[in-house]
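Sequence decides. Consider this:

===
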Amino acid sequence: MQNLFAALLRQIIIAMENIRNFSIIAHIDHGKSTLADRLIQHTGMIEDRNFHDQLLDNMDIERERGITIKSQAVALPYRAKDGRDYILNLIDTPGHVDFTYEVSRSLASCEGVLLLIDASQGVQAQTIANLYLAMEHNLAVIPVINKIDLLTADVDRVLEQIDAELGLDPFSHIRCSAKQGIGIEEVLEAIVERIPPPKGDPSKPLSALIFDAQYDSFRGTVIHCRVFDGAVRPGDVIRFMSSGTTYRVEEVGRFALARLKKDALCAGEVGYLIAGVKTVADVRIGDTITHDDRPAGNALPGFKEIKPVVFSSIYPISSEDYGDLATALEKYKLNDASLVYTKDSSVALGLGFRCGFLGLLHLEIVQERLEREFDQAIILSVPSVRYRFTLKDGSVVHVDNPANYPDPATIEKAEEPFIRATMIMPEKYLGAVMKLCTEKRGVSSTMNYLGPGRVELTYEMPLAEVLFDFYDRFKTVTQGYGSFDYDLIDYREGRLVLLDILVNGEKVDALSQIVHRDNARQRGVHACEKLKDEIPRQQFKIAIQGAIGGEIISRSTISPFRKDVTAKCYGGDITRKRKLLEKQKKGKKRMKMVGTVSIPQSAFLAVLQSDND
């Protein structure tokens, strides 16, 4: 059956009015990947014996965590009730706030979306955020209420939320259970009837948008693109409009569950293109592909430049692996355009890279993928945000690396980025969440009752406070029922200081942090205690200290290994024992002067974790 459909996909030449490009968007855990699985099964793309859950989540890390990290595309052949054959190009997207950029790139290749809403949880923070993204792209929106088979499903309440919170027509919804396969045919028919076909002119010069890419060690860069005008075939000479580089096309095709070769990619289609691109830097997400001999007049509007909000330095454990890490990051960025990085160096850890991430989950995913997919052993510095300092000479500097903290004597004003955090939760958790937000220096709260027993809470709070452990604690106090979304608003003045960590009197620059003065001691104590647990004992005493300038604000001491030098003394004068202990003390002191302390990788990671972890 699968081979039959593969042959059909190769041969089928579909008119543009019979193509539908759509995406599935939703909050985390509302069933996007499960619905994608059912659509693939229903259209006969895979035999039941070869089926497994999360078909489009092809990374191990996605299956382990149960989340979608990368958008994935697949072309589904579908014969509608009117007897016509359609190609439905589905792009499954992530739901987590850290991967919103991945969603916005996918939506640029679509004409419509399925907005999935959990029948028991209802409209959540990312449901609203993703709807706004779809509206920015002027896409057709089909509300789909999923998980109607649950005992806790309350469809009537969800319909009220669709009307009141989303501003959509509640009568346009479709009910389904992706898990049980209920309502899948209705979803497919709605895609055909309510999502418009793509627009474009096959006779115009080629104009194709790169929305993703991945590196294949045998074929070079595999480019994922949406063709808006013209057509591209093997043998064509194409040009990337941003860099001006040219390549000869080797292969084009559609995305089935594997890459499927075709004779051409025409206007309106989503597919892949291989042109022997070995130089990874030549491919830029959001770039326009055109023919070299008949170029398009203008480049397509690409994607807005991503602005990272969390910064951390990545270093190889062995300095000899720096070149391999540089190559790995270059290949990784091809598949994750939201990662930003520049060269960096540390006294303690040598050469590395200063990286910008969209959030802490994004940082964790980058770390794990570099270790798994590129076999890199790496150390991360403490994450920070971008602060703004106004100096006494009137100049303004932006600092995202504690190593670049200005001289405190020259600082006139220090400012930190603030966010507007939107939280939706059951009313019974309101007190615990407000207490958590107040702890994190949250201000100016507004509260809105969305329905019986359901509250939307808005707080303005420093981004640096959210980074540390806010999300984990928020999920804990709401028992997983709360949803959280945020957007940056402005910079506000704060009492910021540089917290240094000293190990045996030596400053470890990778552990330095810029913190608010009120939280400095708490952070210093936390770092010292974590390091005390991780650094192995030596023959001499190790002092771990937190310091602001010359002021020590926290300290932990790792006791040395000690031999019982008085064991051989049986009775007698106490001065003999004292003499032996004094001799031992002097030896330990000499050792401390010449001894060095090596900090294990686990110690750097431990400082990043909260006490709740």
Observations:
- Residues 415 and 492 are 5 Å apart (CA to CA).
- The radius of gyration is 29 Å.
- The chain has five domains: 2-194, 207-291, 310-380, 387-494, 497-608.
- Residues 1-12 have pLDDT under 50 and may be disordered.
